[in-house]
Structures are given as structure tokens and as C-alpha cells.
Amino acid sequence: MTRSTVMERLAILADAAKYDASCASSGTTRRNSRDGRGLGSTEGMGICHAYAPDGRCISLLKLLLTNHCIFDCHYCINRKSSNVQRARFTPQEVVDITLSFYRRNYIEGLFLSSGIVKSSNQTMEQLIEVARILREEHDFRGYIHLKTIPEADPELIAQAGLWADRVSINVELPTESGLARLAPDKNGPRIESAMGSVSTAIEDAKDAQKRFRKAPRFAPAGQSTQMIVGADAASDAQIVGKASTLYDKFALRRVYYSAFSPIPEASAVLPLKRPPLMREHRLYQSDWLMRFYGFAPGEVQQATDADGMLPLDIDPKLAWALKFRERFPVDLNRAPREDLLRVPGLGAKAVSALLAARRHRTIRLEDLARLTVSVKKLRPFVVAADWRPTLLTDRADLRARLAPPATQMELFA
User: Fold this and answer.
1) Is the pLDDT of residue 38 over 60?
2) Contact 127, 65 (CB under 8 A)
3) Dihedral pair phi/psi, residue 389, rounded to 5°
4) What are the boundaries of each domain within the chain?
5) In what order do the strands lie in the sheet with 47-51?
6) Where is the Elp3/MiaA/NifB-like radical SAM core domain (predicted)?
7) Which pLDDT score is estimated for 2?
């Protein structure tokens, strides 16, 4: 069997990495100039877009070291029993590709993960070696995100944080029962133990830097994780609760949600179709409510229905407001920041602008119109100098009035 070229392996391993949402990428129409016409390409080769700790959007080379794996997680296309084309890079080949792409100004950093070959420790050593060569031998100062393996020795995971800007360990599924059923080779307590070790190391490094000017940095961009949505029977309320626990226990920078996507030759225990992508979107919105809007996890869970699911037709903040109408309307000229943040349709920036503006003048409805896309959603929930909703807040059909109108889908789209 002939050895595949670097480009052939790059196509396989970059495509295999697309299922990890911890590094967000922008979607676009697939185009290329292989026919000799035009210039440029938007296809494959693992270049994705992510956000640096300072808010900049950066391009990363996103790929797997290998898609060979000794684990047999049912939801993973690279599982041991999956009949997919396999490929593998050596650490030096990943280094060469990264440097080549960087010198061509294609990328500003690297996102590297891997299937598990032979053992967790052996694979983790190779991931670390890629980062070490880049940093130590080439003085690479771009962004590096390493996906670490919780089954590896804690000493190896600690080494990863010394070379990488960010490390991440995927919890994969929000419940122990789901993990045991769909990923029998993984262990929930061990995953959380590894996350705890990384969190402790990050805090220790921060303390050391306060006392010693040349103390080594450890994962300065923190750690993140990912949960698969819709592969098991976990409800949105359970997912929100799990995410909140992870944020509190391990001071995570982000919890990413990835809607389960059916894979070729799927296991019989998996759902036959993917969940609505809107469900993933609603979970991200609920995540924002907890991180930036002062909502407690229990309050977000109160926005779910009897089955613990967030509504798909309206956002979680509006769903919560409709359930707790006694908290409204909110006076735009007198209410504190925490109450304003709970008004559907008011974002954090708009609230800051309102608080600044009302120091100098009385807020009217027309002032609100300059800060939001639509005042329609806000009218039932606010009081302004020239506006009172009277009975609008308590209308029985309020949800129907505020929900987006139904659209006819195309049969052959």
C-alpha cells in the first residue's frame, strides 16, 4: 500500500476535526479554483475561525494528529468500529504544516486534537511534542489550543498547559448514564478530575506570576469543554445544570455545545436524525444569560417546559419573562441594572447605554428605538416617560404576538 501524501492526509484529518465545536468556525459556500479559473478557495484543509482571549477573530489550523482510535464511542465517526479512511501525522509533520501555513499568512495558530492510538499517554506525549517543538525549537508565538486526554497521566496534562495557550477536555455528554451508554471507555469522574487538575494549575500559575516576574505561564487562555446535544435523552434543563456546575467548579472560559450529527454506519443506540440546530442555539443563549445577564441556573431552567426543554420558537429570556410577568413592567428611568438586563430584547450594551443616558435626560420610547433592533418585543415589559403597557403585559395571547411568524418551508429545498 502506497504512503498517502501530506495533502491527502491533511484532507482526511482536517475533515475529521470538524466535529469538535470547541473551536468555532464560520460557515460559507464551498468554492475552489482547481479548474484553473478564479482565485482562492473556501474548502477544507482545516482552517477555521476562533476568538482569542482579547476578542480578536483569528484563523487556526484545526486538525487531528490521527483519526485512529482504540475507543469505541458510539457517537464518534472515528470510533474503533467505524469504517472510515484512516490517516496519521507525525508530530514533526504537524509542526512543518503549521509553520508552512503560518508563513503564508493562512493562519495565526493551531487547534490540535487526536484519536487515541496505543494508549492515552502515548498519544498525549505526541500532542505535547508538537507544541514543544513549535515553542522551543521555532520560537512560535502564535495561538495554540491543545485538546487533552483525561485518561492520560496528570503530569502529561500539566505539561500541555505549559506550551499551549488554551487546553480543553471534553465532557462529551451531560449525564453519567449517557456517558456510560454511549462512551463506555470514558469515565465521568476521571474527566472531572483532569479538569480540576488543570483548573488548579491555572490558579497556581496566576498566583506565582504575582510573586515572581518570570514565573512560567500555564494555559493563559484558560480551559474549555464541549457537550454533545441530542445524542442521549438529556434535557436542556440537565444540560444547563451541568454547564453551570462546570463553570463553578473549574472556572471554565467556555462550554461549547455541539448538536449531534448522524454519522455513516451509525450505532443502533443513536438517534436516527439530528436535533434541531435551533436547540443548540437556545443553549448558547441560555449560557449567555448565566454568564453575562445575572441569571441563576435555576432561573434559566424555569424557562423550560414540562419536559425540561427550552422553547425553539422564542429565546430563553423571553420564555422566562412570560412565565414571571409579575416582575414586569420595568421602569427604564428608575430600575437597577440587574432588572434591566432581564428585559427581553435588551442586551448588555444597550443596558449600559441606557444607564449612561438617563443620567442626563429622561428616557422615552424613541430613545429605546435607537438602541435595539425592534421595540415590539420590549413594549410589554417596560415603562418609559411616554409609554406604559397597561394591560398589554398580562394579555393571554402575548406569546403569540411576540413569537416570530410561522414560515412555509420549501418541499424540495
Assistant:
1) no
2) yes
3) -75, -10
4) 6-24+43-223, 325-402
5) 47-51, 57-64, 109-113, 143-147, 166-168, 223-229, 254-259
6) 59-286
7) 44
> Is there a contact between 389 and 383 (Cβ–Cβ < 8 Å)?
yes
Cell 498519544 sits at which residue? 123
Burial class (CB in 10 A: 0-12, 13-18, 19+), 71: middle
Closest CA to 161 of 213, 198, 124: 198
Q: Would you give the distance in Å from CA 388 to the centre of its chain?
A: 39
Written as one letter, the residue type at 378 is: L
Return the half-sphere exposure (C-beta side, CA atoms, 13 A cut-off) of residue 129: 15
Total residue length of the chain:
413
Torsion of CA 364, 368, 371, 377, to 10 degrees: 180
- Is residue 284 within 8 A of residue 300, CB to CB? The reply is no
DSSP H helices in 222-315: 236-250, 277-292, 297-301
Model confidence pLDDT, tens digit, residues 286-340: 999 999 999 999 999 999 999 999 999 999 999 999 999 999 999 999 999 999 9
Please, what sign has the CA dihedral across residues 265, 239, 397, 321? negative
Residues paired with 48 in a beta bridge: 60
CB 358 within 8 A of CB 348: no
C-alpha cell at 339: 432588572
CATH architecture of 6-24+43-223: Alpha-Beta Barrel (3.20)
Q: Which three cell numbers, joined as nine digits, stand for 172?
A: 462529551
What percent of the chain shows pLDDT beyond 70? 89
Q: What pLDDT sits at residue 1?
A: 35
State residue 55 phi and psi, 5-degree precision.
95, -5
Look up the pTM and report it.
0.87
The long-range contacts involving 68-72, CB below 8 angstroms and separated by at least 24 positions, are 68/115, 68/117, 69/115, 69/116, 69/117, 70/116, 70/117, 70/118, 70/119, 70/185, 71/115, 71/116, 71/183, 71/185, 71/186, 72/184, 72/185
Distance of CA 223 to the CA centre of its chain: 12
Strands 330-331 and 166-168: unpaired
